[in-house]
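input
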Amino acid sequence: MKSLEIGEMLTLDDEIEYVVMSRLSHNNKNYILFSNLDNPEEILVRIEEFENDELYLCGLEDSKEFDEVLKLFGEQIKN
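output
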């Protein structure tokens, strides 16, 4: 299984279609920033993990981690 690319679209478990807006690596984790295609102001951040060639998109359960990663995405987008 390959990593998701920027611009790639997929439907998540909530049956909403999202597009990959950005990716970054931080603290040995790969994060993906998604935007809802129907409501671009709605964003999601997921951790990309692979197990037995299967892609898993895991939510962030730690609010400090979420805030830190969101800040990094913001800096990345500004540049």
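quick obs: The two ends are 29 Å apart (CA to CA).
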